[in-house]
Write a structure and sequence with these properties.
The protein is built from 8 helices and 9 strands. The strands form 2 sheets. Strands 4, 5, 6, 7, 8 and 9 form a 6-stranded mixed sheet that branches. Strands 1-3-2 form a 3-stranded antiparallel sheet. It is an alpha+beta fold. It folds into 2 domains: 54-150; 162-286, Rossmann fold (3-Layer(aba) Sandwich). The chain has helices at 3-20, 70-86, 95-102, 125-129, 141-150, 187-199, 209-214, 271-286, and strands at 57-63, 108-115, 132-139, 162-170, 177-178, 203-204, 233-243, 248-257, 260-269. Residues 2-44 have low confidence and may be disordered. The N and C termini lie far apart (87 Å).
């Protein structure tokens, strides 16, 4: 028997043994699939009940569909849902929530993944493994309400106001502009504002130039105080100024709600954080959970 034939027989024996040997946990791909021919579900999802309110749902962008970032995604979405369900933005940074976030999976009703690069062809296994996915998590409403009770909070029921920002912006380069639905300079800011509103479970309406004109608002005439807000709209007046010294944005906000004046602000941040500060303050006031400092 030739040396080459012996080599082929040895290789065939190894392959047969590998096929017969049961795959261990170490033989699994990170996405849950076995390296061998046996497959496990990649995304063990279950359909969500259709009547769960969206305030009990949130999403995060994670890497892959495996367990690398799923616990982190569950923890982050739980923090957001506690805020959205209660209308109390202070819960996100509450130290008591840290322990709850560590076992966020206990409160999940269902979840699903959406490949953020679904239109990009796969090139290799590494590309499959590292693809960004939108992890949408829906939590059990009864369990979330029970958690809120342990934190001294309660669900925020009823209609929620639409946040209406009226902002005068002094950016890095002149001229100043009003953040309207049409202003070209505010295109990215409008998107960031919409994202911020969604994170707090509120709707957003950025006024048009025509609306501001009807309210008597212009670059030459920008009132120092906002008109009274009703239960439908939370009209937040403010200025957003860029500072090279900090560096960062300086925001000053004003909201009149239930005949009470509220003023707050933030400095040294990007505009994403500035818009979150506006929405969080408006939510805290409208929900009756307190007032921003």
């Amino acid at each position: 028997m030739t040396r080459r034939r012996l080599f082929y027989i040895a290789c065939a024996s190894v392959l047969l043994a590998a096929a017969a040997w049961p795959a261990s946990a170490d033989d699994q791909r990170p996405n849950g699939n076995y390296l061998g021919s046996r497959l496990m579900p990649t995304t063990p999802e279950a359909p969500c009940p259709p009547d769960i309110l969206t305030v009990y749902q949130a999403y995060e962008i994670v890497t892959g569909t495996d367990m690398r970032q799923r616990p982190w995604g569950f923890a982050q979405t739980l923090r957001e849902v506690l805020v959205k369900a209660s209308g109390d933005p202070r819960l996100k940074a509450d130290p008591r929530v840290n322990e709850l976030a560590a076992r966020a999976a206990d409160f999940v009703a269902c979840f699903r993944y959406a490949d953020q690069m679904a239109d990009v062809p796969l090139h290799d296994e590494q590309g499959t493994y590292d693809r960004p996915n939108r992890l949408t998590v829906t939590f059990d409403p009864a369990k979330i309400d029970a958690l809120l009770a342990t934190l001294g909070d309660k669900p925020w029921r009823g209609e929620r106001p639409v946040v209406v920002p009226v902002l005068l912006v002094h950016a890095r380069k002149p001229p100043a502009y009003l953040l309207t639905a049409e202003a070209p300079a505010g295109a990215e800011q409008r998107g960031a504002f919409a994202t911020a509103a969604g994170q707090f479970g509120l709707k957003l309406h950025i006024p048009s130039e025509a609306e501001l004109t009807a309210w008597g608002i212009s670059l030459d005439h920008f009132p120092a105080a906002a008109p009274a807000s009703d239960g439908t709209n939370a009209i937040v007046f403010g200025t957003l100024d860029w500072s090279e010294t900090l560096p960062g944005w300086i925001g000053k906000w004003h909201l009149r709600w239930n005949n009470r004046e509220h003023e707050w602000g933030i400095s040294g941040v990007n505009y994403d954080a500035a818009f979150r500060d506006i929405v969080a303050g408006a939510e805290l006031i409208a929900s009756g959970n307190g007032a921003p400092e």
